[in-house]
Amino acid sequence: MQLSLNNKKIIISAGASGIGWETAKNCLSKGAIVYICDISSKSIKKIQKHPLIKKKLFTYECDASDEYEVSDFFNQVYKKTKKIDALINNVGVAGPTGNIEKLNSDDWERTLKINVVSHFYFTKLAIPMLKKNKGGSIINISSTAGTMGFALRSPYAASKWALIGLTKTLAIELGKFKIRVNAVCPGTVKGDRMARVIRDKAKFLKVSKKVIENDFLSMSSINSWISQADIANVCSFLISNESIKISGQVIPVDGNTIRFD
Ligand SMILES: NC(=O)c1ccc[n+]([C@@H]2O[C@H](COP(=O)([O-])OP(=O)(O)OC[C@H]3O[C@@H](n4cnc5c(N)ncnc54)[C@H](O)[C@@H]3O)[C@@H](O)[C@H]2O)c1
Fold first, then answer.
1. 74-93, pLDDT tens digit by residue?
2. Which residue, 5, 118, 195, 246, could crosslink 30 as a Cys pair with Cβ 3.0–4.6 Å?
């Protein structure tokens, strides 16, 4: 079955690279119109050359953790469309690695601000546009770290658990408007982010990167990397009409994580 997202309008935070960009490409290939914001002008410039674009992709530079910039981003999207079908709250940083007594409060607060408070800014402004559309889909990108403890990454785990609470609560508040809200929890995704996480953990524990990489892989029963496309496919499904009765759910895309530490 080939899903159709024909003319569905989708906002993605931090969509110019990584999982967000893979999801944008997936949605574009299914006929959607995509509005991306990202803090990196370099990444935005890079994707503007992509052949899939053809007036269906709009890109904006914006720090998702700055309420004024997010508001300006929405004002610009609003000039193009008054209604949207979906919001993907994708922005999220890895945060610091270390035992909690060694972490500083600036890093803690910054992780929570980007990974949780940003989602509040986007969701608040997206809801009127979803209501105008008479329904739609909000996807919060959480993590396996939002379903289990994650040693040495306390602010990240706390932020990703917070998104589960946000998802469950919003699903109740917005159900009567036919707005569905789900959380997608990626596992160990192949890409730049995990390369950085493995490097930092190896440095902290004074072991080789290979040891950490093998340990991450052994944490899921399928024992392999998750791809960005695996996450994108699930997001497209959650936006499509095929998932119209799915809301308030926490959906791991992690090859069945059996431990996470
Ligand atoms: N990669 C993984 O293994 C993994 C696993 C679980 C969950 N996740 C979650 O998936 C989401 C995407 O992860 P990723 O690996 O693609 O991330 P990434 O680190 O590759 O970054 C993706 C994009 O975020 C942008 N960005 C960073 N801070 C921003 C800000 N303040 N405002 C706007 N844009 C900003 C970057 O410029 C970049 O283009 C995150 O929420 C992450 O926590 C990722």
1. 999 999 999 999 999 999 99
2. 5
| Residue minimizing CA distance to atom 26 of ligand 1 | 14
Instruction: Provide the whole-model pTM.
Output: 0.97
pLDDT band at 1 (very low <50, low <70, confident <90, very high): low
Amino acid (1-letter code) at residue 239:
I
Query: Residue 90 Cα, ligand 1 centroid: separation in angstroms?
Result: 7
Domains and CATH numbers, the chain: 9-188+227-253 (3.40.50.720)
Is 60 a known active-site residue? no
